[in-house]
Amino acid sequence: MKIEEFPMLQEDLIYLDNGATTFKPKCVIEKMNEYYETYSANAHRGDYDISFKVDKEYEDARETVRKFINAKDKESIIFTSGTTESLNMIATGFFRKFLEPNDEILITKSEHASNVLPWFRLQNDCGAIVKYIPLDQSHYVTMENLKKVVTPNTKVIALAGITNVIGDERPMKEITKFAHEHNIFVVMDGAQSVPHRKTDVQDLDIDFLAFSGHKMCGPTGIGVLYGKKELLEEMEPVNLGGGMNESFDSPEEMYYKELPTRLEAGTPNIVGAIGLGEAIRFLEKIGMDNIEAYERHLRKYALDKLVQIPHVDLLNIEADGGILAFNVDGIFSQDVAYYLNKYKICVRAGNHCAKILKSEVGVTNSLRVSFYFYNTENDIDALVELLENKEKILKEML
Amino acid sequence: MNEELRREIIMEHYMQPKNRHRPNEDTYQMVNTNNASCIDNLDIYVKIEDQKIKDICFEGEACAISTSSTSIMIQNLIGKTIEEAKEYIKNFENMLNEQPYDSKQLKEGIVYEEIYKQGNRKHCADLPYEGIKKILDSYSQK
Ligand SMILES: Cc1ncc(COP(=O)(O)O)c(C=O)c1O
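C-alpha coordinates for the assembled complex are given below, as produced in the milestone run.
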Protein backbone atom coordinates (compact mmCIF):
# COMPACT_ATOMS: atom_id res chain seq x y z
CA MET A 1 0.00 0.00 0.00
CA LYS A 2 1.32 3.41 -0.90
CA ILE A 3 -0.03 6.57 0.64
CA GLU A 4 -0.27 8.09 -2.84
CA GLU A 5 -3.19 5.75 -3.40
CA PHE A 6 -5.32 7.77 -0.97
CA PRO A 7 -6.14 11.39 -1.84
CA MET A 8 -7.11 12.05 1.79
CA LEU A 9 -3.69 10.94 2.97
CA GLN A 10 -2.23 13.81 0.97
CA GLU A 11 -4.05 16.20 3.26
CA ASP A 12 -2.26 17.68 6.23
CA LEU A 13 -4.06 15.48 8.75
CA ILE A 14 -3.58 12.58 11.10
CA TYR A 15 -6.76 10.61 10.91
CA LEU A 16 -7.41 8.32 13.87
CA ASP A 17 -11.17 7.91 13.62
CA ASN A 18 -11.37 4.88 11.37
CA GLY A 19 -13.99 3.27 13.54
CA ALA A 20 -16.32 6.02 12.34
CA THR A 21 -15.41 5.83 8.67
CA THR A 22 -12.37 5.25 6.48
CA PHE A 23 -10.61 6.99 3.59
CA LYS A 24 -11.16 5.82 0.02
CA PRO A 25 -8.37 4.82 -2.31
CA LYS A 26 -8.22 6.37 -5.77
CA CYS A 27 -9.16 3.10 -7.45
CA VAL A 28 -12.53 3.13 -5.64
CA ILE A 29 -13.19 6.76 -6.54
CA GLU A 30 -12.22 6.11 -10.15
CA LYS A 31 -14.31 2.98 -10.40
CA MET A 32 -17.32 4.98 -9.23
CA ASN A 33 -16.58 7.86 -11.56
CA GLU A 34 -16.34 5.41 -14.40
CA TYR A 35 -19.95 4.40 -13.74
CA TYR A 36 -21.08 8.02 -13.71
CA GLU A 37 -19.05 8.95 -16.76
CA THR A 38 -19.35 5.96 -19.06
CA TYR A 39 -22.27 3.64 -18.26
CA SER A 40 -24.69 5.56 -16.07
CA ALA A 41 -27.88 3.52 -16.44
CA ASN A 42 -30.31 1.68 -14.18
CA ALA A 43 -30.01 -1.96 -13.20
CA HIS A 44 -32.23 -4.95 -13.99
CA ARG A 45 -33.85 -3.55 -17.10
CA GLY A 46 -31.17 -3.65 -19.69
CA ASP A 47 -32.30 -3.53 -23.26
CA TYR A 48 -29.18 -1.69 -24.28
CA ASP A 49 -25.43 -2.10 -23.88
CA ILE A 50 -24.68 0.26 -21.03
CA SER A 51 -27.50 -1.18 -18.97
CA PHE A 52 -26.12 -4.68 -19.54
CA LYS A 53 -22.84 -3.40 -18.29
CA VAL A 54 -24.53 -2.07 -15.13
CA ASP A 55 -26.03 -5.48 -14.40
CA LYS A 56 -22.72 -7.16 -14.99
CA GLU A 57 -20.76 -4.81 -12.74
CA TYR A 58 -23.43 -4.88 -10.02
CA GLU A 59 -23.56 -8.67 -9.99
CA ASP A 60 -19.76 -8.88 -10.15
CA ALA A 61 -19.69 -6.79 -6.99
CA ARG A 62 -22.06 -9.24 -5.34
CA GLU A 63 -19.79 -12.11 -6.33
CA THR A 64 -16.77 -10.22 -4.95
CA VAL A 65 -18.56 -9.82 -1.62
CA ARG A 66 -19.58 -13.48 -1.62
CA LYS A 67 -16.02 -14.64 -2.07
CA PHE A 68 -14.71 -12.09 0.45
CA ILE A 69 -16.79 -13.52 3.29
CA ASN A 70 -16.78 -17.03 1.80
CA ALA A 71 -20.56 -17.31 1.56
CA LYS A 72 -21.85 -20.45 -0.10
CA ASP A 73 -24.52 -18.79 -2.22
CA LYS A 74 -24.61 -15.57 -4.15
CA GLU A 75 -28.27 -15.24 -3.18
CA SER A 76 -27.11 -14.80 0.41
CA ILE A 77 -25.59 -11.41 -0.34
CA ILE A 78 -28.10 -8.56 -0.13
CA PHE A 79 -26.98 -5.00 -0.74
CA THR A 80 -28.33 -2.55 1.83
CA SER A 81 -27.48 1.01 2.83
CA GLY A 82 -25.22 -0.19 5.65
CA THR A 83 -24.96 -2.14 8.88
CA THR A 84 -27.85 -0.25 10.42
CA GLU A 85 -30.28 -1.11 7.64
CA SER A 86 -29.07 -4.71 7.57
CA LEU A 87 -29.64 -5.16 11.30
CA ASN A 88 -33.08 -3.58 11.07
CA MET A 89 -34.00 -5.92 8.22
CA ILE A 90 -32.86 -8.91 10.28
CA ALA A 91 -34.85 -7.83 13.33
CA THR A 92 -37.95 -6.61 11.54
CA GLY A 93 -38.02 -8.77 8.43
CA PHE A 94 -37.05 -12.06 10.01
CA PHE A 95 -37.37 -12.11 13.78
CA ARG A 96 -40.57 -10.14 14.15
CA LYS A 97 -42.65 -12.83 12.54
CA PHE A 98 -40.73 -15.57 14.22
CA LEU A 99 -40.44 -14.44 17.86
CA GLU A 100 -43.19 -15.00 20.39
CA PRO A 101 -43.91 -13.28 23.70
CA ASN A 102 -41.25 -14.12 26.30
CA ASP A 103 -38.77 -15.36 23.73
CA GLU A 104 -35.39 -13.99 24.70
CA ILE A 105 -32.89 -11.95 22.71
CA LEU A 106 -29.35 -11.80 24.09
CA ILE A 107 -27.13 -8.79 23.48
CA THR A 108 -24.53 -6.99 25.63
CA LYS A 109 -24.17 -3.51 27.05
CA SER A 110 -21.30 -2.76 24.71
CA GLU A 111 -23.33 -3.05 21.50
CA HIS A 112 -23.70 -0.13 19.13
CA ALA A 113 -27.13 1.55 19.06
CA SER A 114 -27.80 -0.15 15.72
CA ASN A 115 -27.60 -3.54 17.41
CA VAL A 116 -29.70 -2.46 20.38
CA LEU A 117 -32.64 -0.36 19.25
CA PRO A 118 -34.03 -2.76 16.62
CA TRP A 119 -34.21 -5.41 19.39
CA PHE A 120 -35.74 -2.99 21.88
CA ARG A 121 -38.42 -2.32 19.30
CA LEU A 122 -39.15 -6.04 18.99
CA GLN A 123 -39.55 -6.18 22.75
CA ASN A 124 -42.08 -3.34 22.57
CA ASP A 125 -43.86 -4.77 19.55
CA CYS A 126 -44.05 -8.50 20.12
CA GLY A 127 -43.25 -9.09 23.74
CA ALA A 128 -39.87 -10.73 23.23
CA ILE A 129 -37.41 -9.83 25.98
CA VAL A 130 -33.96 -8.28 25.55
CA LYS A 131 -31.41 -9.60 28.04
CA TYR A 132 -27.73 -8.89 28.50
CA ILE A 133 -24.82 -11.28 28.57
CA PRO A 134 -22.69 -10.08 31.49
CA LEU A 135 -19.20 -8.94 30.51
CA ASP A 136 -16.07 -9.95 32.37
CA GLN A 137 -13.60 -7.55 33.99
CA SER A 138 -12.02 -6.62 30.69
CA HIS A 139 -15.51 -6.21 29.18
CA TYR A 140 -15.24 -9.47 27.22
CA VAL A 141 -17.96 -11.99 26.43
CA THR A 142 -16.97 -15.39 27.77
CA MET A 143 -18.63 -18.70 26.98
CA GLU A 144 -19.09 -19.23 30.68
CA ASN A 145 -21.06 -16.01 31.10
CA LEU A 146 -23.04 -16.71 27.95
CA LYS A 147 -24.06 -20.15 29.16
CA LYS A 148 -25.23 -18.64 32.44
CA VAL A 149 -27.88 -16.49 30.76
CA VAL A 150 -29.11 -18.82 28.03
CA THR A 151 -32.51 -20.29 28.87
CA PRO A 152 -34.90 -22.52 26.92
CA ASN A 153 -36.55 -19.26 25.79
CA THR A 154 -33.40 -17.83 24.20
CA LYS A 155 -33.99 -17.55 20.46
CA VAL A 156 -31.35 -15.15 19.22
CA ILE A 157 -27.90 -13.94 20.21
CA ALA A 158 -26.93 -10.68 18.49
CA LEU A 159 -23.35 -9.52 18.96
CA ALA A 160 -20.74 -7.31 17.36
CA GLY A 161 -17.80 -9.37 16.14
CA ILE A 162 -15.62 -6.60 17.51
CA THR A 163 -17.15 -3.80 19.59
CA ASN A 164 -16.71 -0.17 18.65
CA VAL A 165 -15.58 1.31 21.98
CA ILE A 166 -13.76 -1.49 23.77
CA GLY A 167 -12.57 -3.30 20.64
CA ASP A 168 -12.92 -6.75 22.18
CA GLU A 169 -13.36 -9.63 19.78
CA ARG A 170 -16.08 -12.18 20.47
CA PRO A 171 -15.54 -15.93 20.13
CA MET A 172 -18.17 -16.11 17.39
CA LYS A 173 -17.36 -19.62 16.23
CA GLU A 174 -17.73 -21.11 19.69
CA ILE A 175 -20.84 -19.03 20.24
CA THR A 176 -22.57 -20.25 17.07
CA LYS A 177 -21.66 -23.84 17.83
CA PHE A 178 -23.16 -23.62 21.30
CA ALA A 179 -26.13 -21.60 20.06
CA HIS A 180 -27.02 -24.03 17.30
CA GLU A 181 -26.92 -26.94 19.72
CA HIS A 182 -29.65 -25.06 21.57
CA ASN A 183 -31.67 -23.94 18.55
CA ILE A 184 -30.62 -20.34 18.89
CA PHE A 185 -29.90 -18.04 15.94
CA VAL A 186 -26.75 -15.93 15.87
CA VAL A 187 -26.61 -12.45 14.35
CA MET A 188 -23.20 -10.85 13.92
CA ASP A 189 -22.73 -7.09 13.64
CA GLY A 190 -19.59 -7.04 11.54
CA ALA A 191 -19.22 -3.26 11.23
CA GLN A 192 -15.94 -3.19 13.17
CA SER A 193 -14.67 -6.68 12.37
CA VAL A 194 -15.23 -7.35 8.67
CA PRO A 195 -13.00 -4.40 7.61
CA HIS A 196 -10.15 -5.54 9.83
CA ARG A 197 -9.77 -9.31 9.57
CA LYS A 198 -10.74 -12.33 7.55
CA THR A 199 -14.40 -13.27 7.96
CA ASP A 200 -15.54 -16.70 6.86
CA VAL A 201 -19.27 -17.05 7.34
CA GLN A 202 -19.23 -20.78 6.62
CA ASP A 203 -16.47 -21.47 9.08
CA LEU A 204 -18.19 -19.34 11.71
CA ASP A 205 -21.52 -20.90 10.74
CA ILE A 206 -23.11 -17.54 11.43
CA ASP A 207 -26.82 -17.14 10.57
CA PHE A 208 -26.81 -13.43 9.74
CA LEU A 209 -24.05 -10.88 9.26
CA ALA A 210 -24.25 -7.11 8.74
CA PHE A 211 -21.49 -4.73 7.66
CA SER A 212 -20.87 -1.32 6.06
CA GLY A 213 -18.85 -0.38 2.98
CA HIS A 214 -17.66 2.99 4.24
CA LYS A 215 -15.73 1.46 7.14
CA MET A 216 -13.64 -0.61 4.72
CA CYS A 217 -12.45 1.90 2.11
CA GLY A 218 -15.76 1.76 0.25
CA PRO A 219 -18.35 4.48 -0.32
CA THR A 220 -21.01 5.60 2.15
CA GLY A 221 -24.58 4.42 1.68
CA ILE A 222 -23.74 0.82 0.85
CA GLY A 223 -23.58 -2.20 3.08
CA VAL A 224 -24.31 -5.87 3.15
CA LEU A 225 -26.81 -8.18 4.72
CA TYR A 226 -25.64 -11.76 4.65
CA GLY A 227 -27.98 -14.53 5.70
CA LYS A 228 -28.04 -18.27 5.21
CA LYS A 229 -30.09 -18.78 2.08
CA GLU A 230 -32.79 -20.82 3.75
CA LEU A 231 -33.23 -18.07 6.35
CA LEU A 232 -33.33 -15.23 3.83
CA GLU A 233 -36.00 -17.20 1.97
CA GLU A 234 -38.13 -16.74 5.10
CA MET A 235 -37.36 -13.06 5.45
CA GLU A 236 -40.23 -10.67 4.88
CA PRO A 237 -39.14 -7.85 2.57
CA VAL A 238 -39.37 -4.63 4.59
CA ASN A 239 -39.62 -2.64 1.35
CA LEU A 240 -41.95 -3.57 -1.48
CA GLY A 241 -41.93 -2.01 -4.90
CA GLY A 242 -40.13 -1.96 -8.20
CA GLY A 243 -37.50 -4.50 -9.07
CA MET A 244 -38.45 -7.02 -6.40
CA ASN A 245 -41.87 -8.07 -7.74
CA GLU A 246 -42.54 -10.77 -10.28
CA SER A 247 -46.10 -9.70 -11.01
CA PHE A 248 -49.07 -8.16 -9.24
CA ASP A 249 -52.70 -7.61 -9.93
CA SER A 250 -54.42 -6.93 -6.66
CA PRO A 251 -53.62 -7.13 -2.94
CA GLU A 252 -54.43 -10.83 -3.13
CA GLU A 253 -52.10 -11.38 -6.02
CA MET A 254 -48.57 -10.12 -5.45
CA TYR A 255 -45.69 -12.29 -6.49
CA TYR A 256 -42.14 -11.54 -5.51
CA LYS A 257 -38.92 -12.39 -7.26
CA GLU A 258 -36.33 -14.81 -5.96
CA LEU A 259 -33.40 -13.86 -3.77
CA PRO A 260 -31.44 -11.65 -3.72
CA THR A 261 -33.64 -9.23 -5.74
CA ARG A 262 -36.67 -9.90 -3.54
CA LEU A 263 -34.93 -8.06 -0.69
CA GLU A 264 -33.60 -5.18 -2.80
CA ALA A 265 -36.69 -3.19 -3.74
CA GLY A 266 -36.27 -0.05 -5.80
CA THR A 267 -33.28 1.19 -7.74
CA PRO A 268 -30.33 -0.10 -5.76
CA ASN A 269 -27.24 1.86 -4.80
CA ILE A 270 -25.57 0.73 -8.00
CA VAL A 271 -22.49 2.88 -7.81
CA GLY A 272 -22.12 2.09 -4.12
CA ALA A 273 -22.10 -1.63 -4.74
CA ILE A 274 -19.60 -1.27 -7.57
CA GLY A 275 -17.40 0.92 -5.36
CA LEU A 276 -17.59 -1.59 -2.53
CA GLY A 277 -16.56 -4.39 -4.88
CA GLU A 278 -13.49 -2.39 -5.86
CA ALA A 279 -12.69 -1.61 -2.20
CA ILE A 280 -12.77 -5.31 -1.39
CA ARG A 281 -10.38 -6.10 -4.24
CA PHE A 282 -8.10 -3.38 -2.87
CA LEU A 283 -8.19 -4.88 0.64
CA GLU A 284 -7.60 -8.38 -0.68
CA LYS A 285 -4.51 -7.21 -2.51
CA ILE A 286 -3.08 -6.08 0.82
CA GLY A 287 -4.39 -9.20 2.48
CA MET A 288 -6.79 -9.31 5.42
CA ASP A 289 -4.32 -11.23 7.55
CA ASN A 290 -1.68 -8.58 6.95
CA ILE A 291 -4.16 -5.88 7.88
CA GLU A 292 -5.02 -7.63 11.12
CA ALA A 293 -1.39 -8.23 12.04
CA TYR A 294 -0.35 -4.66 11.27
CA GLU A 295 -3.21 -3.18 13.29
CA ARG A 296 -2.35 -5.40 16.24
CA HIS A 297 1.18 -4.10 16.00
CA LEU A 298 0.00 -0.47 15.87
CA ARG A 299 -2.25 -0.98 18.84
CA LYS A 300 0.52 -2.51 20.91
CA TYR A 301 2.86 0.28 19.90
CA ALA A 302 0.33 2.91 21.00
CA LEU A 303 -0.66 1.06 24.15
CA ASP A 304 2.93 0.70 25.34
CA LYS A 305 3.34 4.45 25.07
CA LEU A 306 -0.03 5.51 26.47
CA VAL A 307 0.24 3.36 29.60
CA GLN A 308 3.37 5.31 30.47
CA ILE A 309 1.43 8.56 30.72
CA PRO A 310 0.14 8.89 34.30
CA HIS A 311 -2.77 11.19 33.45
CA VAL A 312 -4.13 8.94 30.69
CA ASP A 313 -6.74 6.46 31.95
CA LEU A 314 -7.25 3.63 29.49
CA LEU A 315 -10.64 1.91 29.39
CA ASN A 316 -9.47 -1.01 27.32
CA ILE A 317 -5.96 -2.17 28.09
CA GLU A 318 -6.97 -5.51 26.72
CA ALA A 319 -8.56 -5.52 23.25
CA ASP A 320 -8.17 -7.16 19.86
CA GLY A 321 -9.29 -4.49 17.44
CA GLY A 322 -7.22 -1.40 16.61
CA ILE A 323 -9.14 0.69 19.11
CA LEU A 324 -7.98 2.56 22.20
CA ALA A 325 -10.46 4.29 24.48
CA PHE A 326 -9.23 6.58 27.22
CA ASN A 327 -9.66 9.78 29.14
CA VAL A 328 -7.21 12.42 30.22
CA ASP A 329 -7.61 12.66 33.96
CA GLY A 330 -9.82 15.61 34.91
CA ILE A 331 -10.39 16.90 31.38
CA PHE A 332 -13.62 16.38 29.48
CA SER A 333 -13.02 14.20 26.43
CA GLN A 334 -14.41 16.73 23.99
CA ASP A 335 -11.96 19.36 25.20
CA VAL A 336 -9.06 17.00 24.53
CA ALA A 337 -10.43 16.27 21.07
CA TYR A 338 -10.58 20.01 20.33
CA TYR A 339 -7.02 20.37 21.50
CA LEU A 340 -5.83 17.54 19.25
CA ASN A 341 -7.80 19.04 16.39
CA LYS A 342 -5.68 22.17 16.66
CA TYR A 343 -2.78 19.95 15.66
CA LYS A 344 -4.84 18.34 12.90
CA ILE A 345 -5.28 15.06 14.69
CA CYS A 346 -8.75 13.64 14.26
CA VAL A 347 -10.06 11.54 17.15
CA ARG A 348 -13.54 10.91 18.39
CA ALA A 349 -14.95 12.08 21.72
CA GLY A 350 -18.23 11.00 23.19
CA ASN A 351 -20.17 7.89 23.97
CA HIS A 352 -19.64 6.42 20.50
CA CYS A 353 -23.29 5.40 20.13
CA ALA A 354 -22.86 2.84 22.90
CA LYS A 355 -25.06 4.55 25.44
CA ILE A 356 -25.73 1.57 27.65
CA LEU A 357 -22.03 0.86 28.00
CA LYS A 358 -21.63 3.48 30.72
CA SER A 359 -23.15 1.23 33.34
CA GLU A 360 -20.48 -1.39 32.48
CA VAL A 361 -17.36 0.77 32.40
CA GLY A 362 -18.51 3.53 34.75
CA VAL A 363 -17.53 6.22 32.28
CA THR A 364 -19.99 8.13 30.10
CA ASN A 365 -17.64 9.74 27.65
CA SER A 366 -14.21 8.94 26.36
CA LEU A 367 -11.77 9.59 23.59
CA ARG A 368 -11.47 6.92 20.98
CA VAL A 369 -8.55 6.34 18.68
CA SER A 370 -9.15 3.75 15.95
CA PHE A 371 -6.59 2.64 13.40
CA TYR A 372 -6.59 1.36 9.86
CA PHE A 373 -3.78 -0.11 7.83
CA TYR A 374 -2.70 3.28 6.48
CA ASN A 375 -1.89 4.67 9.92
CA THR A 376 1.74 4.72 10.99
CA GLU A 377 3.91 4.75 14.08
CA ASN A 378 4.56 8.41 13.33
CA ASP A 379 0.85 9.14 13.71
CA ILE A 380 0.96 7.55 17.14
CA ASP A 381 4.14 9.39 18.13
CA ALA A 382 2.47 12.70 17.29
CA LEU A 383 -0.58 11.81 19.36
CA VAL A 384 1.45 10.63 22.33
CA GLU A 385 3.62 13.70 22.32
CA LEU A 386 0.58 15.96 22.49
CA LEU A 387 -1.03 13.94 25.26
CA GLU A 388 2.08 13.73 27.42
CA ASN A 389 1.95 17.34 28.49
CA LYS A 390 -1.18 17.92 30.55
CA GLU A 391 -0.35 21.56 31.22
CA LYS A 392 -0.27 22.13 27.49
CA ILE A 393 -3.66 20.48 27.05
CA LEU A 394 -5.18 22.67 29.76
CA LYS A 395 -3.60 25.72 28.25
CA GLU A 396 -4.61 25.08 24.67
CA MET A 397 -7.87 23.21 24.86
CA LEU A 398 -10.12 26.24 24.54
CA MET B 1 -10.72 41.49 26.08
CA ASN B 2 -7.46 39.76 25.31
CA GLU B 3 -7.16 36.07 24.75
CA GLU B 4 -5.19 35.31 27.91
CA LEU B 5 -7.81 36.96 30.10
CA ARG B 6 -10.65 35.21 28.28
CA ARG B 7 -8.93 31.89 28.79
CA GLU B 8 -8.43 32.56 32.47
CA ILE B 9 -12.05 33.46 33.07
CA ILE B 10 -13.31 30.44 31.15
CA MET B 11 -10.99 28.08 33.02
CA GLU B 12 -11.99 29.57 36.35
CA HIS B 13 -15.67 28.99 35.65
CA TYR B 14 -14.92 25.52 34.30
CA MET B 15 -12.88 24.41 37.30
CA GLN B 16 -15.18 26.05 39.87
CA PRO B 17 -18.55 26.58 38.27
CA LYS B 18 -21.16 28.57 40.11
CA ASN B 19 -24.08 26.61 41.56
CA ARG B 20 -23.17 23.19 40.30
CA HIS B 21 -25.53 21.10 42.41
CA ARG B 22 -29.08 19.89 42.32
CA PRO B 23 -31.67 22.03 44.15
CA ASN B 24 -32.75 20.93 47.60
CA GLU B 25 -36.35 22.01 47.27
CA ASP B 26 -38.95 21.23 44.66
CA THR B 27 -39.84 24.79 43.65
CA TYR B 28 -37.47 24.60 40.68
CA GLN B 29 -38.26 23.81 37.09
CA MET B 30 -35.85 21.56 35.29
CA VAL B 31 -34.80 21.40 31.67
CA ASN B 32 -32.31 19.03 30.12
CA THR B 33 -30.16 20.39 27.37
CA ASN B 34 -27.75 18.44 25.20
CA ASN B 35 -26.07 19.01 21.89
CA ALA B 36 -26.36 17.14 18.63
CA SER B 37 -23.16 15.19 19.04
CA CYS B 38 -24.87 14.03 22.26
CA ILE B 39 -21.93 14.44 24.53
CA ASP B 40 -22.62 17.59 26.54
CA ASN B 41 -25.54 16.87 28.79
CA LEU B 42 -26.79 19.34 31.39
CA ASP B 43 -29.79 19.58 33.68
CA ILE B 44 -30.61 23.18 34.47
CA TYR B 45 -32.89 24.11 37.38
CA VAL B 46 -34.59 27.48 37.64
CA LYS B 47 -36.59 28.98 40.46
CA ILE B 48 -38.91 31.78 39.39
CA GLU B 49 -41.06 33.89 41.70
CA ASP B 50 -43.09 36.96 40.77
CA GLN B 51 -41.69 36.93 37.21
CA LYS B 52 -38.19 37.08 38.64
CA ILE B 53 -35.35 34.54 38.53
CA LYS B 54 -34.56 33.78 42.15
CA ASP B 55 -32.06 31.03 41.61
CA ILE B 56 -30.48 28.77 38.99
CA CYS B 57 -28.35 25.69 39.49
CA PHE B 58 -27.20 22.85 37.27
CA GLU B 59 -25.71 19.40 37.15
CA GLY B 60 -24.33 17.23 34.38
CA GLU B 61 -21.34 16.47 32.24
CA ALA B 62 -20.08 18.91 29.67
CA CYS B 63 -16.99 20.38 28.09
CA ALA B 64 -15.10 23.42 29.33
CA ILE B 65 -17.04 25.79 27.11
CA SER B 66 -20.52 24.54 28.01
CA THR B 67 -19.73 24.29 31.69
CA SER B 68 -18.17 27.73 31.95
CA SER B 69 -20.92 29.25 29.85
CA THR B 70 -23.52 27.79 32.18
CA SER B 71 -21.69 29.18 35.18
CA ILE B 72 -21.43 32.63 33.65
CA MET B 73 -25.07 32.51 32.60
CA ILE B 74 -26.12 31.68 36.15
CA GLN B 75 -24.05 34.53 37.53
CA ASN B 76 -25.67 36.98 35.13
CA LEU B 77 -29.29 35.87 35.12
CA ILE B 78 -30.04 35.44 38.81
CA GLY B 79 -32.01 38.45 39.96
CA LYS B 80 -33.24 39.38 36.51
CA THR B 81 -36.91 39.48 35.55
CA ILE B 82 -37.98 37.08 32.82
CA GLU B 83 -38.02 39.90 30.30
CA GLU B 84 -34.59 41.15 31.32
CA ALA B 85 -33.23 37.61 31.11
CA LYS B 86 -34.63 37.20 27.62
CA GLU B 87 -33.05 40.45 26.62
CA TYR B 88 -29.68 39.27 27.95
CA ILE B 89 -29.98 35.97 26.08
CA LYS B 90 -30.90 37.69 22.85
CA ASN B 91 -27.90 39.92 23.19
CA PHE B 92 -25.63 36.96 23.97
CA GLU B 93 -26.86 34.98 21.00
CA ASN B 94 -26.42 38.00 18.75
CA MET B 95 -22.78 37.98 19.76
CA LEU B 96 -22.46 34.28 18.94
CA ASN B 97 -24.13 34.82 15.59
CA GLU B 98 -21.95 37.80 14.67
CA GLN B 99 -24.85 40.25 14.90
CA PRO B 100 -24.65 43.66 16.57
CA TYR B 101 -24.75 43.35 20.38
CA ASP B 102 -24.21 45.39 23.53
CA SER B 103 -21.01 44.12 25.09
CA LYS B 104 -21.41 46.03 28.36
CA GLN B 105 -24.64 44.32 29.18
CA LEU B 106 -23.08 40.87 28.73
CA LYS B 107 -20.44 41.35 31.43
CA GLU B 108 -18.27 38.19 31.60
CA GLY B 109 -20.41 36.67 28.86
CA ILE B 110 -18.18 38.43 26.35
CA VAL B 111 -15.45 35.84 26.91
CA TYR B 112 -17.13 33.99 24.07
CA GLU B 113 -16.96 36.92 21.68
CA GLU B 114 -14.67 35.02 19.32
CA ILE B 115 -16.10 31.56 19.72
CA TYR B 116 -17.91 31.81 16.39
CA LYS B 117 -14.53 31.20 14.81
CA GLN B 118 -14.48 27.71 16.27
CA GLY B 119 -17.33 26.05 14.40
CA ASN B 120 -19.25 23.76 16.66
CA ARG B 121 -17.93 25.21 19.93
CA LYS B 122 -20.43 27.99 19.35
CA HIS B 123 -23.14 25.47 20.19
CA CYS B 124 -21.35 24.55 23.38
CA ALA B 125 -21.43 28.19 24.51
CA ASP B 126 -25.10 28.46 23.62
CA LEU B 127 -26.13 25.16 25.20
CA PRO B 128 -27.29 26.45 28.61
CA TYR B 129 -29.16 29.32 26.93
CA GLU B 130 -31.02 26.94 24.63
CA GLY B 131 -32.14 25.11 27.73
CA ILE B 132 -33.17 28.01 29.90
CA LYS B 133 -35.05 29.68 27.04
CA LYS B 134 -37.48 26.77 27.08
CA ILE B 135 -38.32 27.43 30.70
CA LEU B 136 -38.58 31.20 30.25
CA ASP B 137 -40.80 30.80 27.20
CA SER B 138 -43.13 28.44 28.99
CA TYR B 139 -43.38 31.08 31.69
CA SER B 140 -44.36 33.94 29.46
CA GLN B 141 -47.06 31.80 27.88
CA LYS B 142 -48.70 31.18 31.24
C1 LIG C 1 -20.31 -1.94 15.99
C2 LIG C 1 -21.09 -1.08 15.04
N1 LIG C 1 -22.29 -1.46 14.63
C3 LIG C 1 -23.02 -0.74 13.78
C4 LIG C 1 -22.56 0.46 13.28
C5 LIG C 1 -23.43 1.25 12.35
O1 LIG C 1 -22.87 1.33 11.09
P1 LIG C 1 -23.53 2.25 9.96
O2 LIG C 1 -23.65 3.61 10.57
O3 LIG C 1 -22.55 2.20 8.85
O4 LIG C 1 -24.84 1.66 9.62
C6 LIG C 1 -21.32 0.92 13.68
C7 LIG C 1 -20.82 2.22 13.19
O5 LIG C 1 -20.29 3.04 13.89
C8 LIG C 1 -20.56 0.13 14.59
O6 LIG C 1 -19.36 0.55 15.00
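The pocket of pyridoxal-5'-phosphate is lined by residues A 19, 82-84, 112, 114-115, 160, 164, 189, 191-192, 212 (CB under 6 Å). Residues 26-285 of chain A form a domain with the Aspartate Aminotransferase; domain 2 fold (CATH 3.40.640.10). Further analysis is deferred to the final report.
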